[in-house]
Amino acid sequence: MSWDNSIPCSAGIDLGSTTIKVVLYNSRDYLARIKYASWNPSGIARDLLKSTCSEIGLPGVPSMIAATGYGRKSIDEASCTYTEIACHARGATFLVPGCRFVIDIGGQDAKGIRLTDDGNVADFVMNDKCAAGTGRFLSTMGQALGVHVDHLAKHALGTPPHRINAMCTVFASLHPEPPVVFTGGVSQNADIAERLSQEIGYPVIVPADAVYAGALGAALIAWEQMKK
Ligand code: ADP
C-alpha cells in the first residue's frame, strides 16, 4: 500500500473486551491493525497506535483520534469518544453502502442496530448481560473441545442445529431489514453467519474488515469532525 502522508489522517481506536483495533483513515485509504487486549489494555492501545503510525512513516500520531469500545474512556490520547453503536453503524455503512441493519457480536456482547435510509441509527438492542453466543462463549467452548476458535466453523458447518426451548428476549426483538451486515470478531465464523442468514431469511453480509468496523467508524467520525 502506498500511503500518502501529505494528506492529514484521523485515527479510530476500538478498545474492546477482548481485542484492540486501530484504524488510520485519510479519505483515500485506511490501514487497520489488531492486538489482543491483556493486562494494561490502554498501554497496548497506545503502542498499537504508535506502531501503526510508524508503519506508514507518520511522524507522531494524528491530531484527531476517536475512541470507542468498552474501554474508550481510558485512552488519554483520544480527542473524543463515541459509542460502539454509533461507530459500528458508521463503519458498516462505509464497508457496505446502503446497509440497513448491523449485527455486531464481539467478545462479550451482541448488538443489533437498525439504520435509516441515510445510515443514521434508528434504534438498537444490546445484550451485554449474558455471554451466550459471544466470542468469549465460543472460545471457552473451543477450549473445552480442544478446537481453536478459528476452526469451530469447519466442524459446525452442515450439522443439524440443536433445538433450544427458550430464546433471549433481546434476540426475539430483532427484525432485520436487508442489507444486513455482520461485524465483530464472531463474524469470522462462517457457520454462524450462515445460520443467522437462515434464521432471518436474508443473506448476512460479512465484508472484509468486518472485525474493524467499530474502529473504522470511529476513524471516519473523527475525520468528519476534523473537516468541520
Ligand atoms: P471486542 O470488541 O469485544 O474485543 P471483537 O469484536 O474483537 O470483540 O471479537 C473478539 C471475539 O471474537 C473473541 O472472543 C473471539 O473468540 C471471537 N472470534 C475471533 N475469531 C473468531 C472465529 N473465527 N470464529 C468465532 N469467533 C471468533
Name its key features.
228 residues; alpha/beta; 5-stranded mixed sheet; 32% helix; globular; binds adenosine-5'-diphosphate
The radius of gyration is: 18 Å
- H and E string: EEEHEEHEEEHHHEHEH
Q: β content, as a range?
A: 15-25%
Strand order in the sheet with the most strands: 3-2-1-4-5
What's the assembly state of these chains? Answer: single chain
Percent range for helical residues?
Answer: 25-40%
Low-confidence stretches: none
Q: What gross morphology would you assign?
A: globular
Bound molecules: adenosine-5'-diphosphate
Distance between the termini: 28 Å
Tally the helices: what do you get? 7
Q: Whole-number average pLDDT? A: 91
Secondary structure class reads alpha/beta
Described by strand count, sense and barrel closure, the largest sheet is: 5 strands, mixed
Number of strands: 10
What is the element layout, followed by pairings?
Blueprint: E1 10-15, E2 19-25, E3 30-36, H1 41-55, E4 64-68, E5 80-81, H2 84-95, E6 101-105, E7 110-115, E8 121-127, H3 135-145, H4 152-156, H5 169-172, E9 180-183, H6 190-200, E10 204-205, H7 213-227
Parallel strand pairs: 1-4, 4-5, 6-9, 9-10
Antiparallel strand pairs: 1-2, 2-3, 6-7, 7-8
The site of adenosine-5'-diphosphate has 21 residues, from α3.
